[in-house]
Amino acid sequence: MNEELGKRYGIRCTLPPDDPMAAAHLLGPDWEACRWYDTEHERDEAYEEFSREHLYSRRGDKPSVIYTRISR
């Protein structure tokens, strides 16, 4: 059994339509990924971590991935 099936709180990752990685020959316009967590608190902590400026990025760079809190 997939361990993530029992987890209720997640983060959906998608790309904006104008992102170069959304090109059909790369990830494609319908690409999405989900990460699942046991608790709402764990999910919210991960959401904050995903949304912050990356340690090794250039100053001012922002991830283009769109993060959305979800639950099931």
Describe this structure in words.
The chain is α+β, with helices and mostly antiparallel strands. The chain has one domain. Strands 2-1-3 form a three-stranded antiparallel β-sheet, with helices on one face. 17% of the residues lie in helices and 25% in strands. It starts with 8 loop residues before the first strand and ends with a strand.
Distance between the termini: 18 Å
Tally of separate domains: 1
Note the beta-strand portion: 25-35%
Instruction: Kindly report the spatial arrangement of strands forming the biggest sheet.
Output: 2-1-3
Mean pLDDT: 89
Shape: flat
Total of DSSP H or I helical runs spanning 4+ residues: 1
Q: Say how many strands there are.
A: 3
Q: pLDDT under 50 segments (min length 5)?
A: none
Rounded radius of gyration (Å): 14 Å
Q: In this structure, how is the largest beta sheet organized?
A: 3 strands, antiparallel
The class by helix and strand makeup works out as alpha+beta
What is the N-to-C order of secondary-structure elements (H for helix, E for strand)? EEHE
Give the helix proportion (percent range): 10-25%
Write a short abstract of this structure:
17% of the residues lie in helices and 25% in strands.
Walk me through the topology:
Elements: E1 9-14, E2 32-37, H1 40-51, E3 66-71
Antiparallel strand pairs: 1-2, 1-3
Key descriptive features of the protein:
17% helix; 1 helix; 72 residues; alpha+beta; 3-stranded antiparallel beta sheet
